[in-house]
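Treating backbone geometry as a discrete language has practical consequences that deserve illustration. The sequence in question and its structure tokens are set out directly beneath this paragraph.
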Amino acid sequence: MKVQAIINPISGVGSKRKIPKMIEQLCKEAGYDLNIRFTEYPGHANIVASKAIEDGAKCVIAVGGDGTVNEIARALVHTDAVLGIIPKGSGNGLARELHIPMDVKRAFEVIRRGHELTIDCCRANEHIFFCTCGVGFDAAVSQKFAGEKRRGSLTYIKNTVEEYLSYQPEVYDLLVNGEAIQEKAFLVACGNASQYGNNAYIAPHANIQDGQMDITILSPFLPKDIPQLAIQLFTKQIDKNSKIKTMKATTLSIIRQNPGWMHLDGEPIMADARIDLAVIPHALRVFTPEVVSFRKEVQAIFGEVSRFFDQRRPYIFR
């Protein structure tokens, strides 16, 4: 199998110096014909992936975060090529949604086993996304986070708190499957998948294969509401909060007073005052684990927690 690996050297946190040799060795053992490229600028991954498919690649491996995965996956939509994901970003939303391990070797083993899933994607105006799209507060945080030199969860939390202190909700006119509603909202999120990343479930009942978007509308709230919202966000219970409205749709239009920021899979872009969204069913082939047991999910969570604290221990204790 002809394989193209595309590595974003600046995604997420931690060095990726050892990853190319690791992938080379793993592909050699699997008998794959491998080519490796590093991204050099925003949008480069999409160009490399498109060229690889033209040259006959049957698998394109994304090594990076959700932005890198998005760029590469866009080139694979409605092609015979299959996406492989080695998650090395800050949130890794699509990888987590598909239960792909965070460890490089275990993620590659998913690719080697060859089990495929065909998933939906969505379009927001001319832009494609695979996990979530949003306007309002989450888009503002994404824009702020994109300008940071340091990545990671702590930086994201800092930006979230800072943005909350000054953010003002907006009034949105929405067309949900053609039905008009108006909402004053802190954010409007559209989920093809259930989470932003880092197991933050903004659309806990979303199904990436059901041909629908799950829309989450967060009404204005007070500081005292934050602890409950945060707990529910990370425990798949956000839809039970009184400040939340949810609905399913195949088409959605978001109309606001002025153009502004929108995020697509965590990456901020400027968008028009009107954003038209629609589902593209059965759009992308991706390598995923065959069966994910509850025990393995728990083990993976404890493994991530362990690695988190291991990276932050003083050197003398390592």
